[in-house]
Each structure stands twice: as C-alpha cells, then as structure tokens.
Amino acid sequence: MSDKDKFQLLVFDGDFSLPSIEPESIKSILYCTVTGVPIEVNTFNSYKTAFNKVPPVLIHKNLRFKDYEQIVAYLKTVNFNLDSELEPLERSECLAMTNLVQSKLKPVIEFNYWIEHRNSNELMNIWFMRSLPIPFNYYYTRHFRDRATDFMESLYPSETDTEIVKEYIQRAAIDCLSSLSARLGTEDYFYGKKPTSLDVTMYAYIAPFLKIPFPLNEMNNVISMWPNLVNLVKRIDSTYFPELPKGSKYLKFEDQAKTNDDDVSYAAIVILTISATTLMLGFAYTRGYLTGKMLN
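Above: the chain's sequence. Below: its structure in token form.
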C-alpha cells in the first residue's frame, strides 16, 4: 500500500489504559480496529499535528474527515462497515440504541470532564496542559470547557443550577444503562460474538468512568451496578487493546498526593501554632501577667 493509499487517523493521546482520553477519538480508534482498517494512528501532541482540525481526523487519499460520523460514513463506502453482517431489523435496532447511548451518555461524560469543577480543574485541565504543546494546550482546554457549557445550555436552556443539571443528566444516563444491560443480557456483545457500532459507542462513553481517576466520579459506582456492561468493557480491552499501559503518562498521582499531604501537614502546624499562641496570650492576660499597656 502506497503512502497515498494509507489511512491516517489523528487522535488525542491515550492514557489510563484508554486508547485515547477523548471519547470521539476512542470511538474512531475502536471502529477502525474492529473492522480491520489498516490505519496509522498519530497522536495530537506535537506542533506538526496540532495545526490540524480537532481530532479525530481521518486522512485518506488527500481526503479529510473531521469527526466520528464522517469517518464512519466514509469507511462504509470503502467496505469497512462494522454492522454489515446484521439483519435489517437488527441494523435498525442497533442504530436506535446507538442514538440512545449518544443522547443519554454523551451529556454525562461532557459534564464530568468539563463542568464538574474538581474534575475539570484538578485533572482534565492539567492533563491537556501537559499533553499538548503551547499555545494549543491553552486553546483546547478553553475550547472543550466552552463547548461543554454550550452543550449543557442547549439541553437545559432555562436551568442555571449545575447541580440540578447534573441530576437530570445522571438520571437519564442511569435509565440508558439499565436498558443497555437488559439488552446485552449474558451475551459477549450486543449482536453476537463481535462488536458493532453500538458496542463501540457504549465503550467510548463508559470506559472513561471506569478508568480515569476523576476526583469526583459518581458514575463509576453507578456503572458498577451492571456487571455485564463492565465485563463488556474488559472484553474489548483484552481483545483489542491488550497492551495499553496502566497508569498515566502525564500525571503523577503519588507525587501529587504526597505534595497535598505535605501542604496539609504544614497548614495544620501553622494553625495549631497560632491557636496555641492565642490561648497562651489569652490565659496570661486574664491572669494579669499581661496588661493592655504591655500588649500595646
């Protein structure tokens, strides 16, 4: 295959045993992997790649496709169709279920990545700042946060309380997960022994909650209520991503935890010292050992 005929996929880098940190990139990588597309995966973490459009981007024969839907639509035209073996009724159901997952799980992952302040400030911002070159790291952290905010406002235009929005989207996500679990049952995948586009989309929106160490991660406990969904994620990992390293390339949580512990210890010492000094001075003053004139 000539260089011109090669498929190139540009994605955000992977971490925490995920093929990518970003769900749309995860979907694109997994779809191409399962269908056997001969892709060369390039990560969006250098000046050479940072001038491209926002990942995922598929490049083939001087053509560029800039998001997951466009990528899949093009791959189907060149005979890489993940759902080609499904019966017509199964294909219709698969499409309906995939749209359900997209509409119910995308909001909750966008919220947890960029709206939940601790997750955004303590993890996602730091990760993207370290994984992307300057000034693209500043641009994309702002871009993702603004995009998530606009997305939430489009879903709930009259609601300004983020806690209420969080409750709405989590409730919708729970209903969706319950439906997925019931549909999956004891099968390996939703339609037989091989993933379909439904499995791909579900993996991309569930796996981050199971793997990324968010400071606040209520969805991890929620997803764990359905072991068959968790096992599907593990099955995809062992089959298609068996060699992804655990841990993080860009964040050192042990060092961060140690630093936080040291900060807490020093703060505690300062507070205790001030408190003890105040008590001693108060005691001395009440007993007459110190006078107002001496304190002045």
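The chain has three domains: 3-77, 88-240, 253-295.
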